[in-house]
Amino acid sequence: MPTPAPAAPSRRVALFVTCLVDLVRPAVGFAAVKLLEDAGCTVEVPPLQVCCGQPAYNTGDRATTRAIARQVIDAFEGYDAVVAPSGSCGGMLSHHYPTLFDDDPALKARAEDLASRSHELISFLVDILGVDKVAARFDGTVTYHDSCSGLRELGVKQQPRRLLASIPGLELREMKTPEVCCGFGGTFCVKYPEISNAMVGEKSADIAATGAGTLLAGDLGCLMNMAGKLQREGQGIRVRHVAEVLAGMADRPAIGEPDTGAR
Question: How confident is the model at residue 5 (pLDDT cuts 50, 70, 90)?
Answer without folding.
Answer: very low
